[in-house]
Design goal:
Spore Coat Polysaccharide Biosynthesis Protein SpsA, Chain A, 2 domains, two-stranded antiparallel sheet, 34% helix, binds 1-O-phosphono-alpha-D-glucopyranose
């Protein structure tokens, strides 16, 4: 079955970025001039996804507005001859994917947010894309997972090696031998283990391809770490009755979910963006002499 649908959970409170996120969704924080969630929607589109459900919450209206048209702004840009900016603005509404929205009323965990997509997914395999991780590779990561699915017809979770001291920030896998160079069988999935208890340094990095049976498990999932319904726990349960593989991502990952990662990503993307790269490079070189 073709993988056509994606879920983007975007209901988090964004407390790591307060006070910026008091009224602004963290998904709307820009990297140079593009909100982080737009990168995720573009990755979905480039991966062949047709329908996206964004699970939002209170204070998230700006996300819907961003992907909607803005006739007043567009008229003004047209009148003042700013055709480049007009194109940039209109492209967002013309992405060629269908966007749907639903709300998670209480922050009850990632598993709960995903469960809200049950009827949207309607019994098909689907992708989950978390907004805190921007991925760069020749083939978009969501597409890499879809390519795996086309061969295995099984769920596959993207993982990446992280420094050992950081494992407790992630879901971590216990690998159990590989069936292809980057595709592992998994013994267990553990949500945020203590550093000395982690079964490996392979962390779940925010892209999942799941079969719809996950919803039968999420429906009865008890709360786990932090008192929240954890997606990782449901995946671990599913792995006992059907195969769930781990795909080791070899591209570049930018973690925009914390202040330091966000600033680093802004610099990296600023060094590529045609309007900022030259001036920024010069500035960083001069700054480096002073530091
Ligand atoms: C979530 C998942 C975790 C995963 C991480 C990736 O955690 O629960 O398993 O490793 O995303 O970013 P969160 O960062 O929302 O606490």
């Amino acid at each position: 079955m073709k993988v056509r649908r994606a879920i983007i959970p975007a209901a988090g409170l964004g407390t790591r970025f307060l006070p910026a996120t008091k009224a602004l969704p963290k998904e709307m924080l820009p990297i140079v001039n593009k909100p982080t969630i737009q990168f995720i929607v573009e990755e979905a589109k480039a991966s062949g996804i047709e329908d996206i459900l964004i699970v939002t919450g209170k204070n998230k209206r700006a996300i819907e507005n961003h992907f909607d048209s803005n006739p007043e702004l567009e008229q003004d840009l047209e009148k003042t001859g700013k055709s480049g900016l007009l194109k940039l603005t209109q492209e967002i509404t013309d992405l060629g994917v269908n966007l749907y929205y639903t709300r998670q009323p209480y922050p009850a965990g990632l598993g709960d947010a995903v469960y809200r997509a049950r009827s949207f997914v309607a019994g098909e395999p689907f992708v989950i894309m978390l907004g805190d991780d921007l991925m760069k590779d020749k083939v978009p990561l969501a597409k890499q997972l879809i390519n795996d699915y086309d061969k295995t017809h099984a769920s596959t979770i993207a993982v990446m090696k992280v420094p050992h001291k950081e494992v407790s920030k992630y879901g971590v896998i216990a690998p159990d031998g590989n069936i292809a160079p980057d595709l592992y069988n998994v013994k267990n999935f553990v949500e945020k283990p203590a550093v000395d208890k982690a079964p490996s340094d392979l962390a779940i990095i925010g892209r999942y391809l799941l079969t719809p049976e996950i919803f039968d498990i999420l429906e009865h999932q008890k709360s786990g770490r932090g008192g929240e319904i954890q997606l990782t726990d449901a995946i671990d349960t599913m792995n006992k009755t059907q195969r769930v593989f781990a795909h080791v991502f070899k591209g570049e990952r930018f973690d925009v979910g914390n202040k330091e990662g966000y600033l680093e990503t802004s610099i990296q993307y600023g060094l590529i963006h045609p309007e900022t790269r030259d001036a920024l490079r010069k500035y960083i070189k001069e700054l480096g002499k002073k530091l």
